[in-house]
Design a protein that fits this description.
The protein is α+β, with helices and mostly antiparallel strands. It is built from 13 helices and 29 strands. The radius of gyration is 26 Å and the shape is globular. The termini are far apart.
Length: 551
């Protein structure tokens, strides 16, 4: 009898353990489902998502459409352009050649491109890898749109941007830079004797059986390719860009399954030794000692105090985000087939759930009294002299950076901790030596601000313009080739959406001039001789850009 009872007890215990694991798994699955379904509708462009823990898949699903025109549903097998996630592959390729003794990280770029005009500055491979070279990024050049569709060899395209003035001295600043990784691709070719696509295929994809990964091509037939889209008023096929131009900075294509193979290979030192791959995950510093929160091909960040290694990507028609949490051995990878829908915050939120460190968002906020809210109202000055204003209106706290046109609502998760709507940025208020102090947290970045006696500036007030007038502004305005601002209206509100960017509200300061609150910018509409709208002018950051109405 005792043996029978013992067996029953053991069986019940095992059943309960398995039941609890199943419930936890179902709970995580349903939470991820809810997050993705809220962002990616079944009849719109979609997402492919994979979550792995300890190398094993715990979530693998897709939502939305892989092809809108053919009404084809998205699947986890779909292949996407991954954009700047390509930089991981480029960085590891450089480290492979380092181990083979074919280059050094302190080699100057003139060793490989003798005629590169460095203006007497020492620009090294390390600078290129860490976005600290000071070389002008070609994607920030206004003339890039004029060549974006052209097929160029690596040296031909380096000639396009190499004569641009440098943004700063090497190692002086961190500024994300596609030109640096483009040059790295050419260095890989020169040192290895193979083209960049050939090197990536033979030395990486073939080695770990990444059968659904490619150097990008518009003409090659690629099984399970998800079509890329953009959205202004409505969905359209993504604008064409020659994939010879993103090159080693952004031309790889892959699937979520292949990306798990890649991440597993990186974590198990398949391509380079452990002490070598550590170089990719080191938080490097500028000349003045400030950390840049970037290694080689990966950025370094945190989710609620837990360290992460991550990177996203964006290219016409596609966006991507991968997050690895080393201490929990959790990997999250998301691909989207519309550059209108970024998976970045979604991937971070899913990673946070998987490691049981959920993001506290607006819906998790608590109620505080007007007195409790008012305790933190005031101006706070930070180390870089930035002023952030905390204001209270209708029992709601707002945050506004000095010089910014927009105030943002912040929501309490405790009497002294307040988060922005997405939950990734927050304030932690306290009293130190009798003074109010605000710790501003943007994930890994933390700054302390001290209360100063300064009044918040008055908000710019919008006037009302009739619906009939607003409708006359609707249309598409071309500011430069492949860069269009689409104007729409809904009721008495006007909206603007630039190519590849979200839609923003416009607020009237006169019948023809409107301002944005999200950035310091304004738009003015111009009439022709008959009274019709023929163009607009965008004023932003000292720049003035005119766009003619094309539709």
């Amino acid at each position: 009898m005792k043996t029978t009872h013992l067996l029953k007890y053991r069986f019940l215990s095992l059943f309960l353990i398995l039941f609890c694991i199943t419930i936890q798994s179902q709970s995580l699955e349903s939470k991820i489902d809810n997050i993705l379904e809220s962002q990616f509708k079944s009849n719109e462009t979609g997402v492919s998502a994979l979550v792995a823990k300890d190398g094993k898949v715990v979530y693998r699903k897709a939502f939305g459409k892989a092809n809108l025109e053919l009404d084809v549903a998205m699947t986890p097998e779909n292949v996407f352009q991954v954009g700047s996630i390509t930089k991981q592959f480029t960085a590891v390729s450089i480290l492979m050649l380092l181990e083979e003794g074919k280059l050094n990280l302190e080699d100057e770029i003139t060793k490989f491109i003798p005629d590169y005009p460095t203006k007497g500055k020492k620009i090294t491979i390390h600078h290129l890898l860490t976005h600290t070279s000071g070389i002008k990024s070609y994607t920030s050049m206004s003339s890039f749109g004029q060549v974006a569709t052209l097929k160029k060899s690596p040296l031909e395209f380096i000639d396009f941007f190499k004569k641009e003035p440098m943004d700063f001295n090497p190692g002086e600043k961190y500024l994300y830079n596609n030109s640096g990784y483009f040059i790295l691709g050419y260095i890989i070719e020169k040192v290895s004797g193979m083209s960049y696509p050939e090197f990536i295929q033979k030395r990486i994809f073939d080695k770990i059986y990444m059968k659904s990964s490619y150097y990008g091509s518009h003409s090659q037939l690629i099984k399970n390719r998800a079509s890329g889209y953009q959205k202004n008023k409505e969905f359209t096929n993504a604008q064409y860009i020659s994939l010879t131009l993103p090159y080693a900075a952004g031309s790889i294509m892959s699937s979520v399954d292949d990306m798990l193979k890649w991440q597993t290979a990186i974590a198990t030192n398949v391509f380079v030794k452990e002490n070598t791959i550590r170089k990719a995950f080191t938080n490097y510093t500028l000349n003045n000692g400030d950390k840049i929160n970037y290694g080689y091909g990966w950025s370094l960040d945190e989710i609620n105090g837990v360290s992460t290694i991550e990177h996203g990507g964006s290219i016409p028609g596609y966006k991507s985000m991968g997050v690895f949490v080393p201490s929990k051995n959790v990997y999250v990878i998301l691909f989207s087939n519309c550059d209108c829908k970024s998976p970045t915050n979604v991937a971070i939120e899913i990673a946070a759930l998987t490691i049981d460190k959920p993001i506290l968002k607006k819906e998790n906020s608590i109620q505080l009294s007007k007195e409790q809210l008012g305790k933190w109202v005031g101006a706070y000055q930070f180390k870089d002299k930035t002023i952030r204003y905390i204001t209270l209106k209708d029992e709601q706290l707002y945050s506004k950076r000095e010089g910014s046109p927009q105030s943002f609502k912040i929501y309490p998760s405790s009497p002294n901790i307040f988060s922005f709507e997405d939950g990734l940025i927050s304030y932690e208020f306290s009293i130190e030596d009798g003074k109010k102090v605000a710790l501003f947290k943007n994930r890994i970045n933390k700054e302390k601000g001290v209360f100063v006696d300064k009044k918040a500036p008055k908000e710019q007030v919008a006037i009302e313009v009739s619906e009939n007038v607003l409708k006359t502004y609707e249309g598409e305005y071309e500011l430069q080739p492949n860069f269009i601002i689409t104007i729409t209206s809904k009721g008495n509100q006007l909206f603007a959406q630039a190519t590849g960017q979200p839609q923003f509200e416009l607020f009237a300061e006169s019948e023809t001039k409107f301002f944005l609150k999200v950035v310091k910018a304004s738009v003015e509409f111009h009439k022709n001789e008959t009274g019709g709208i023929e163009s607009l002018t965008l004023f932003q950051g000292g720049a003035i850009m005119k766009g003619n109405k094309i539709n």
